[in-house]
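Structure, all two chains, one model.
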Amino acid sequence: MQTSADLDTSASALRLGDDALILGQRLAEWSARSPQIEEDIALMNLALDQVGAARALLTRAGELEGQGRDEDDLAYLREEPDWSNALLMEVENGDFGRTMVRVLLVAAYQLPLYDALRHTSDEVLAGVAGKAVKEVTYHLDHARSWVVRLGDGTQESHRRVQQGLDELWPYAAELFETDALTARLVERGIAVDPSSLESPWRAAVEDVLREATLTVPETTWRPTGGRTGAHTTGFGYLLAELQHLHRAHPGASW
Amino acid sequence: MSTEQAPAGFTAEGGHGAVPTAGVPSDERGAKTSQPLWECFVRSRRGLAHTHVGSLHAPDSHMALRNARDLFTRREEGVSLWVVASADIVASSPDEQDSFFDPAGDKPYRHPTFYDVPEGLTHL
């Protein structure tokens, strides 16, 4: 019998897993399209790290949910409104500069998040977080290299990476939103308060932006809704690509 | 790309001995100049020497090391990585093969196994 704590932990693992899987899927879209083969492999490594974390997180979410759903059921058989990833994970890649800005914004959030999650009372989540901290540390390093290189590069690279930053910046606010679920999770020692991550996130990101000679965007627009299943138009196309094989050939493997 | 150290008309790029610098089609995006080649060496575990594993393009040493990490150590191949600019490697040229290596061909006594070990000798 599932307790309400189990269900809350399941919902929390689902949010984390959805974030990781959808970002991994977006990054995987660069496969064979990167500017150079070395970067192609680097991007796929980032994508695989995210997908790997997603597998463990979705599996845990399914276990605690108690309805017999495994990672594949959760990844391949849910409709758009059932997904709880933040919008920042799902918006289109744009150009390479914008893609790297997203990796920067997400890694700077996931690093303190997973770092705190290592001390959660759920042992499985703590294990996933312990592994993910090392991976995300590298993601942040990689994104930092590129954002500084492009921002402090040519006029054209600066213009494009600044544009990508301006476009993605408003979506970051959703990462730090709190709701009834996060409040209960904090109370039970299962999850970290998302709002407490904003200041370390901002410090880390602004540090990179300063070095990259980029301007921190000023905006009052705060798109939101991903956590409750209200997704962007492009998300349906992303799910179609992610799910079509499993839906056409259920249980396919190789 | 510097060819000062390599014989005229050759470069050590690729790390597989000298290759001609002329008559080779170059990347139209200018990869040869803005993204020079780096040779990568991996130490698979402590106590072993670094071994050449391949080469890659990168704009500078920082990126070369990270690219090498992503290309050559993603399956637990190593505990340490070196990258060296290919242009900095001095290689022997095919023209020098005879004078460099043939003279050693008829001197098997340079192998320690050439000699009989005297009876009763210990600690060898």
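Confidence is low (pLDDT under 50) at residues 24-32 of chain B.
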